[in-house]
């Protein structure tokens, strides 16, 4: 290998663990399994060189200070123990953060690990391994909550209820009803199940499914929030973990890590969309994904067509559709949009999915030296974005991490004001979904709408008859009347 700048960031080890045994497992123990495999993947010589240990936010029951617990489990004594805030963008965001630290000589080698033990948690009560540890983790990351009071009041906190709003906007743009969009999504997402089936040891759902199996509501594939059936949702009740090791080239060299293990982050870029979904001018597109992808590709000196290995964050179909558009890719791109099977089919390990994507892209880059990989991470509700470019080829001009503060300010300034009408007012619907009860079918309809003065509002009708009438249909662009209710909530009626 051509002599590198000694501080060039390089990823040297990846590991994944999926637990299917009869006995439940804790998230930290599971993260330990993946971390052990990452250390072995690096050649078994990095153990004593890890100076920073990071555990990605765990959503399933887990003890406090997971990084300290993981360090104890692995016998590591890093200078820093860090854990993170919520966000599926986090694994890729951390690549940029610690690549910068490696270049600045504030970090030599970092082990990043994450895990979810949601499947185990369904079988046992309480938090495992709650004994005290010496020291508290430093928490890093953006700790803002992803929705505001109006979204919460309308029942739009859980991702399976909010993400369908974006899908409805995409459907309307394409001239489709919700039922037509659901059929379309069955065909769009089915190839990902084939990829997941190709990972029988690590995927949580290694089952190839037909478009009809994904799109048609059945007792096993019930409707959640239109147009999404169960099999269009990421499911986080899994026991999965993944980890990676990032270090300076001189550290990898000194440790004797074989160069065929080395994969370079050529660039990464981070941007947020307008933070609260209801304030975004466009609900069918993501300016932040487009901006971050463009910046990462430019910094890496390549274009989207040069990428051989793609993994797009895929908690829900709309996230994939928006990213494809941002990258200028057709929805039937022959490369596909996932190397794992995606968040919904490979498995939905909370905030840690992208660590699995990075692991697989790294393996593919190793298998095809000189090829390029791209990974994306997404946090909250198509809100926080991170994009990374990978290759066994070191970056010609050094690792790229563009400063996008001006672009972020421009996006933030586009936020639409929110308003709660105190009397009946007309509005135009920008997005909607139909919530389904597990047994009763359509039960309520939330909408995001624009009032006559250009402000946004959120309303919800719990009229089951109206929900059944609007089920599968079209509502975007229609006029409605926003109705303030006695309890302070906002309802609506079609005009």
Count of helix runs? 14
Q: What is the helix fraction of residues, given as a range?
A: 25-40%
* CATH uppermost class of the largest domain: Alpha Beta
Query: What would you call the structural class?
Result: alpha+beta
Task: Please specify the SSE layout and strand pairing.
Layout: E1 9-18, H1 27-41, E2 52-55, H2 66-74, E3 80-84, H3 90-103, E4 109-117, H4 118-121, E5 138-140, H5 149-153, H6 159-173, H7 178-197, H8 211-215, E6 223-225, E7 228-229, E8 239-248, H9 249-255, E9 264-272, H10 287-300, E10 309-311, H11 317-327, H12 353-367, E11 372-379, E12 384-391, H13 405-412, E13 425-432, E14 435-437, E15 441-451, E16 456-461, H14 464-470, E17 479-484, E18 490-494
Could you give a short description of this structure?
By secondary structure, the protein is an alpha+beta fold. Helix content is 30%, strand content 23%.
3D architecture notes:
This protein is of the alpha+beta class and 495 residues long. It has 3 domains: 315 residues, 3-Layer(aba) Sandwich (Peroxisomal Thiolase, Chain A, domain 1); 67 residues, no CATH class; 70 residues, OB fold (Dihydrolipoamide Acetyltransferase, E2P) (Beta Barrel), CATH 2.40.50.840. It is built from 14 helices and 18 strands. It has a 6-stranded mixed sheet with strand order 1-8-4-2-3-5, with helices on both faces. Strands 13, 14, 15, 16, 17 and 18 form a 6-stranded antiparallel sheet that branches. Strands 9-12-11-10 form a 4-stranded mixed sheet, sandwiched between helices. Strand 6 and strand 7 form a beta hairpin. Helix 1 packs across helix 2 and helix 10 crosses helix 11. The protein is globular, with a radius of gyration of 23 Å. The termini are far apart. 57% of the residues are buried. The model has no long low-confidence stretch (mean pLDDT 96).
């Amino acid at each position: 290998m051509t002599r590198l700048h000694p501080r060039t960031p390089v990823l040297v080890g990846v590991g994944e663990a999926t637990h299917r045994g009869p006995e439940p497992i804790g998230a930290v123990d599971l993260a330990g399994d993946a971390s052990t495999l990452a250390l072995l993947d690096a050649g078994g010589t990095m153990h004593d060189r890890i100076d920073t240990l990071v555990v990605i936010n765990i959503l399933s029951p887990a003890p406090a200070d997971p990084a300290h617990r993981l360090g104890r489990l692995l016998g590591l004594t890093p200078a820093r123990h860090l854990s993170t805030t919520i966000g599926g963008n986090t694994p890729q965001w951390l690549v940029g953060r610690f690549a910068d630290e490696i270049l600045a000589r504030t970090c030599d080698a970092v082990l990043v690990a994450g895990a979810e033990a949601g499947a185990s948690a369904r079988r046992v009560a309480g938090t495992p391994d709650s004994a005290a540890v010496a020291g508290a983790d430093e928490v890093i990351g953006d700790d803002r909550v992803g929705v505001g009071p109006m979204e919460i009041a309308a029942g739009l906190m859980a991702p399976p209820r909010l993400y369908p709003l974006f899908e409805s906007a995409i459907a309307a743009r394409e001239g489709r009803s919700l039922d037509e969009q659901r059929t379309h999504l069955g065909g769009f997402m089915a190839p990902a199940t084939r990829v997941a089936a190709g990972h029988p040891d690590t995927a949580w759902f290694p089952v190839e499914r037909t478009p009809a199996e994904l799109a048609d509501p059945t007792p096993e594939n019930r409707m959640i929030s239109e147009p999404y059936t169960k099999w269009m949702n990421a499911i986080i009740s899994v026991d999965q973990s993944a980890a990676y090791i990032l270090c300076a080239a001189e550290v990898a060299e000194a440790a004797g890590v074989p160069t065929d293990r080395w994969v370079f982050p050529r660039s990464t870029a981070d941007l947020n969309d307008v933070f609260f979904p209801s304030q975004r001018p466009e609900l069918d597109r993501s300016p932040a994904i487009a901006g971050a992808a463009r910046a990462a590709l430019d910094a890496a000196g390549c274009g989207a067509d040069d990428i051989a290995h793609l993994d797009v964050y895929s908690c829900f179909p709309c996230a994939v559709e928006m990213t494809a558009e941002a990258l200028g890719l057709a929805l039937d791109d022959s490369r596909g949009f996932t190397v794992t099977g995606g968040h919904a089919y490979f498995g939905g390990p909370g905030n840690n999915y992208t660590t699995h994507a990075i692991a697989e892209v790294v393996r593919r880059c190793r298998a095809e030296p000189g090829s390029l990989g791209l990974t994306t991470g997404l946090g909250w509700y198509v809100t926080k974005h991170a994009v990374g470019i990978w290759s066994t080829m070191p970056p010609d001009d050094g690792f790229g991490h563009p400063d996008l503060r001006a672009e972020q300010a421009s996006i933030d300034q586009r936020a639409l004001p929110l308003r709660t009408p105190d009397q009946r007012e007309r509005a135009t619907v920008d997005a909607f979904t139909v919530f389904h009860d597990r047994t009763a079918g359509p039960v309520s309809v939330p909408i995001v709408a624009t009032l006559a003065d250009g402000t946004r509002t959120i309303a919800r009708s719990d009229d089951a008859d109206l929900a059944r009438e609007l089920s599968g249909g079209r509502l975007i662009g229609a006029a409605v009347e926003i109705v303030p209710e006695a309890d302070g909530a906002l309802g609506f009626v079609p005009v």
